[in-house]
Amino acid sequence: MSTTSTPLKDTGVGKKAAGPVEWLDDRIGLAGLVRKNIRKVFPDHWSFLLGEIALWSFVVLLLTGTFLTFWFQPSMAEVPYDGSYDPLRGLEMSQAYASTLNISFDIRGGLLVRQIHHWAAALFMAAIIAHMLRVFFTGAYRKPRELNWLIGIGLFAIGLIEGFAGYSLPDDLLSGTGLRFVDGLIRSIPVVGTYIEFFVFGGEFPGELIIARLYMAHIFLLPGLLLGLIAAHMVLLVYHKHTQWPGPGRTEKNVVGYPMLPVYAAKAGGFFFVVFGFTTLMAATLQINPIWAYGPYNPSEVTAGSQPDWYMGWVEGAVRIMPNWEFTIGPQTISLNVFIPAVLLMGILFTVLAIWPFFESWVTGDKKEHHLLQRPRNAPTRTAFGVAGMTFYGVCWIAGGNDIIALKFNLDIFTITWMARVLVFVGPVIAFIVTRRICISLQRKDNDAILHGYETGIIVRSAEGSYAEAHAPLPPEKAFALTARPRVPELTAPVSEDENGVANPDGRKARLRAWAKRFFYAHDVDKPTRFEVEDAAHHFHDDVYPPHDFPDDFSGVSETGVPKQH
Question: Where are the transmembrane segments (predicted)?
Answer without folding.
Answer: 46-72, 116-137, 149-169, 215-239, 260-284, 338-359, 379-401, 413-435
